[in-house]
Every structure is written in C-alpha cells, then in structure tokens.
Write a structure and sequence with these properties.
By secondary structure, the chain is α+β, with helices and mostly antiparallel strands. It has helices spanning 7-27, 69-81, 106-111, 114-118, 186-194, 244-251, 262-265, 275-283, 313-317; strands at 29-34, 37-41, 48-51, 57-60, 62-68, 85-89, 100-105, 122-127, 130-148, 159-161, 164-170, 179-183, 197-199, 202-206, 209-212, 217-220, 229-234, 238-242, 255-259, 268-273, 289-293, 304-306, 308-309, 321-323, 329-336. Helices cover 23% and strands 39% of the residues. The strands form eight sheets. Strands 3, 7, 9, 11 and 12 form a five-stranded mixed β-sheet that branches. Strands 1-5-8 form a three-stranded antiparallel β-sheet. The radius of gyration is 34 Å and the shape is flat. The mean pLDDT is 87.
C-alpha cells in the first residue's frame, strides 16, 4: 500500500530551505566604496542662502556602503548606469534654519538617507566626516538691471523696462553688487531689434550659483541700421585648407596647387559693420578668408568653391559685422609636377 505524500512536511522543508538561503545571503555582506556621491542643497526657504563654502553642491571624497551582496550589486548597477549617488540636503530639516555657520556630521546625515535605507544598505564611513554649512539671511533690495551677451559683454544700447527690480539678496551686499543681469543670445539680440522681448533677470550669489528675479523685464534694442554702415575691406589674406590626403601629396611633390582667379578672390569685400568691427577684421592675425579643398575636387575638371569669410567671432556674436555681397567663388586647379605648368603658386 502506497503512502500518501505528507505535503505539510514538504512545505516546512521548503520553507526552512528558503530561510536558510535568505539568511545566508544576508550574512554575505559586501562593502562598496563610492567615490561619485554628491550632496546638493535643496532650496526650501527662499529667504535663506544655504551653501557648502559658497557652493550649492559638494562631491564627497568617499562613502563606504555595506549590505547584502545582492543589494550591493543592485546599487552598483544603478550607479554605473546613472551619474553617481545623488543626495539632497535640506538645511531646515537639520535644524539649520537660522543664519550662521554650522558643521554637518556627514556620516550621521548619510546614514539617515531614505534611498540608501530603502535598498537595505548602511553607510559604514565617509570622507570627510564633517562638512561646513553656511546659512546667509537674505533681505529685499532694489537692483539695477543690466544686459549682457553670451560672452558677458555689456549691451549698453539696450532699453530695459523696468530698469530696477526688487530681489532678495545677502544683507551684507554693498551697492556695487546690487545688479541683476539679463543674458541675451545672438538670436534674442536680433529679435530685440525688431520687437520687445521678455526676459527674467538673475543675480549671481557665487561662482556657478544664480537665482532668478521673481519678475521678468522687457528689453528692446535699436534697429541694426542705426549701428551698421555699408563698408568695404580690401582682402589681403586667404588660407587654403587642403584635405589631409591632398596635403600629403602636395608635400611629397606630386602636384602643385593654384588659385586661377586670385585677383578676383582678393578683391574688395562688401560688408555691413561698425567701424570697430571693420578695423578688427582688417587687423586680425588669422587670414580673412579660407578656401576649403577636398579629395573629390582633384577629379573635377573645373573645380571651384565659395570662400568662407573669417569675421571676428566677438563681432559676429554682437551682430556688428556681416557679409553684404555674394561670397566670392574661387577657381583652382591641380598641376602635376611632370606638367610644363609645374611652377608652384601659393597665395598669401
């Protein structure tokens, strides 16, 4: 007579086996050193400026995290796929809600981190052990608004409405710091010459730290015609940019290169520019034009290409210079060394 399987005993054995594996896994704790953990200030109180020595974030030198092998592997994978361990710091939650200088026990703070605890892990140690925290009280002040371009150059001709805005700033700021900036891109500068644009000013609390003013301002710029004139520049220099393959063949003496309409190429250049931008273009150290030549041009019976005008970058960014003609087309040819025309011509 067959005995009936005792399912209760089987279930107990399976349950005990699973528990043994679970406890075995928990017993195999690993330590993961993390060197890309960043603690960042959370702006919870608009009337306070909280920083780590004037910085909004701090890269922790090392954090040792301990836990079961499976959980450690899970965290390690997450760190490798992301941008490191990110930890938020709320000064008010740590009792630092009054102006002053504080010392944060970094280990104690990290051990309370919700994400690390959620993963079933524990912070064993960290470097440094403490972190200085500065809390500065902010007061309302009236700030002058100034306009700058992407290179931080003042745009003095900008009309700003209102010319002053109210903003919370550190109470120890002197009058020379009471300035809110508005940065305009090249496209916004062009747009502001045709119609008014709205932009939100900001203040600089420290290097890399800004805060936006609560209200936007209206910016207008005078039309471009008021600034630029029709001018001409006598072209004196052109660079020939050969592909690496063509350059190597030229240096090995396999052919010579000639611009066949050089006089036309080096003719007067019609521009619209300010006098200062024209002068900068005339006196710059780099060539005024560049002719780009590629491998396929050597197989062309009549190669030609428009030159590129190397206007000063700052003048272009400010909208102070532009081409006022169709780009000149350079014609050129490759002369085999064996050819009777083998005298080399290199434009200056």
């Amino acid at each position: 007579m067959k005995r009936k399987p005792k399912y209760g005993k089987i279930a107990i054995v399976v349950f005990i086996t699973v528990l043994i594996w679970i406890f075995a896994d928990l017993a195999l704790d690993e330590i993961l050193p993390v060197s890309n953990a960043t603690i960042s200030v959370v702006k919870s109180n608009p009337q306070l400026w909280v920083s780590f020595d004037d910085a909004s974030s701090f890269l922790i030198e090392e954090v040792l995290i301990k836990g079961p092998l499976r959980r450690i592997a899970e965290l390690n994978k997450k760190l490798e796929e992301g941008e490191g361990l990110k930890i938020d710091f709320d000064a008010a939650s740590e009792g630092m809600n009054e102006p002053g200088s504080y010392s944060l026990s970094l280990l104690t703070f990290l051990q309370k981190d919700k994400e690390i605890k959620r993963l079933g892990l524990k912070v064993e140690s960290c470097k440094p052990e403490t972190l200085p925290v500065k809390v500065v009280g902010l007061v309302s002040r009236l700030l002058d608004v100034k306009c700058v371009d992407e290179g931080q150059n003042p745009i003095s001709e900008a009309t700003i409405d209102p010319a002053q805005v109210e903003m919370l700033v550190p109470e120890d700021w002197g009058s020379e710091k009471l300035i809110a900036e508005v940065k305009l891109t090249s496209r916004e500068i062009e747009q502001a010459r045709g119609s008014a644009i709205n932009k939100t000013p900001y203040i600089r609390l420290a290097l890399g730290q800004t805060r936006q003013v609560p209200q936007p301002v209206i910016i207008t710029l005078p039309p471009e015609l008021d600034r630029l004139s029709d001018l001409q520049v006598k072209a004196r220099t052109i660079s020939i940019a050969l592909s690496p393959n063509l350059l190597q063949n030229l240096l090995q003496g396999k052919f010579n290169f000639e611009v066949t309409n050089l006089n036309d190429v080096l003719g007067p250049i019609a521009i619209r520019a300010t006098i200062d931008a024209k002068r900068a273009y005339e006196n710059q150290s780099i060539p005024q034009m560049t002719l780009y030549v590629f491998d396929d041009d050597k197989n062309n019976a009549d190669p030609k290409r428009e030159v590129v005008y190397n206007f000063p970058e700052e003048s272009v960014r400010k909208g102070e210079i532009k081409l006022n003609q169709k780009p000149v087309e350079a014609k050129f040819k490759f002369i085999p060394v064996s050819s009777p025309e083998s005298s080399k011509i290199t434009p200056g």
